[in-house]
Amino acid sequence: IEVDASTGGTVKPVARAKTAAQILDKLVELTKERGSNHKLYGVIGYTRGAVDRAEDLKGRLLSELKFDWLYVAEESASVAVHNGRGFIDYAFASKV
Asked: What is the band of 15 on the pLDDT scale with cuts at 50, 70, 90?
């Protein structure tokens, strides 16, 4: 999903995918489309059971784009309660 100024704060789906691998591919693709001309800043959050996928996403992003920083962090217990195990979220910006 996407929420930003262009959507007026409304949540909208960005893409469809059936597998976790397709989702990670799409995240890299969307980042390249929207941020390839800028130095980027990003964060990848994960809940228990998803650290390997979060680190994989980080590696893929760093190999294809220029990030000033890209952090990976475990989410809080409340995120895990609401979204479940194995959840990954990702955000990036060209200005901080």
From this structure: confident
Domain enclosing residue 44, as ranges? 19-93
SS (H, E, C) 5-51: HHHCCCCECCCCCCCHHHHHHHHHHHHHHHHCCCCEEEEEEECCCCH
pLDDT at 62: 96
Check: pTM over 0.85? Answer yes or no: no
Q: What is the CATH number of the domain that holds 29?
A: 3.30.1180.10
**Residues 54, 60, 65, 70, Cα dihedral to 10°:** 20
Measure the CA angle with vertex 91, ends 67 and 71; round to 5°: 50
10 within 8 A of 42, measured Cβ to Cβ: no
What is the total count of domains within the chain?
A: 1
